[in-house]
Amino acid sequence: MELLKSDFYYDLPEELIAQHPVEPRNSSRMMCVDRRTGEIEHAHFYNLCEHLKEGDLLVMNDSRVIPARLYGEKIGNGTFIEFLLLEQKGDKIWEIICRPGKKAKVGRRFSFGGGRLIAEVLEVKDDGNRIVRFECDGNFFTALEDVGQMPLPPYITEKLEDKERYQTVYSKELGSAAAPTAGLHFTPEMLDELRAKGVKTAFVTLHVGLGTFRPVKEENVLDHKMHSEHYYLPAETAALINETKKNGGRVIAVGTTTCRTLESVATFYDEIAEHEGYTDIFIYPSYEFKCIDGLITNFHLPESTLIMLVSAFMGYDNTMNAYRKAVEERYRFFSFGDCMCIL
Questions:
Q1: 126, 196, 250, 305: which could form a disulfide with 293 (CB 3.0–4.6 Å)?
Q2: Whether 121 contacts 87, CB under 8 Å
Q3: With 0-12 CB in 10 A as exposed, 13-18 as middle and 19+ as buried, what is 162?
Q4: Would you call 284 helix, strand, or coil by DSSP?
């Protein structure tokens, strides 16, 4: 089977890339798509309750973005260095990307926030990433909160005034280098409204890596190597999913990260139960979904693995037609943009 990257291209005017979030959160637009017929309805996110039924289950990713971008200097001569934290490897030990890389040799030490954080390079990996050990007084994440900056995607060029607007209102588990953006539209009041209607909510954790922005370079999609991300599916969430399925309700994933977590467990273990591990699952057209019945997701980059996942769920033709319509109707795209509700 051949699947071409260019099959997933669409023309997007630059001015439709959202540079800042809308206020309030749930006032973003929502394109509702019937994945069987491709029929489209235009709504707003605050209308979501009208599209869900008692007995449905919303599953959300409760990962919290860390302010993973650090600007500092080399101890000794004060030359500039930038770190981007990728993944925690141990107590205050992280894998990072840095620039300029030639400054970050093994044994070199760097200072951030006037010495609030100190880092020493322990290892240079084959791919150029570094393993570093941090030192600080008190809690590492408190120090990081003080000196770090949000690692906004490269297509967002405006400064974010409020760090919390790049977090979901239910974020809890520290560890992501990027936000699970489909959840940015929820407000606490909306979650209460949904629960009052009989829509249940549950959580998984998948720490989003920067690989989520990595472009597909190979023209044959099947040659693309997916990045690996850490996930955890708790026992209580697994029980709610199984109960929802048994009672004829729908399991609706909020975001592609939640979708990848649920489908990974269902694929790897042939069951929905408590599991923790790493996943590099790549979902593209021809994939057979084993868990989810609905998907809430933002509009994704052309030729990205995420638009391929959406195409797998609601069909290639329906997806490309919906994206064309979204451009025509001037929806806002990407992380701070509008969303789709696919049922």
A1: 250
A2: no
A3: exposed
A4: coil
Tell me what pLDDT residue 1 has. 65
Record the pTM. Answer: 0.93
CB 296 within 8 A of CB 339: yes
Rounded Cα distance, 243 and 241, in Å: 5
Instruction: Please answer whether residues 302 and 9 qualify as being in contact, where contact means their C-beta atoms are separated by less than 8 angstroms.
Output: yes
5-65+162-342 CATH: 3.40.1780.10
Four-point Cα dihedral 307, 311, 312, 318, nearest 10 = 160
The first and second tokens of residue 170, run together, are: 């239910």
Whether 218 shows a pLDDT value over 90: the answer reads: yes
Tally of CB atoms within 10 A around 126:
5
CA end-to-end span of the chain, whole Å?
27
CATH 2.40.10.240 fits domain 69-147: yes
DSSP H or E stretch at residue 286: none
User: In residues, how long is the chain?
Assistant: 343
Query: What is the phi/psi pair of residue 175, to 5°?
Result: 160, -10
pLDDT digits 0-9 by tens, 48-67 = 999 999 999 999 999 999 99
* DSSP states of 22-70: -SSGGGSEEEEE-TTT--EEEEEGGGHHHH--TT-EEEEE-EEE---EE
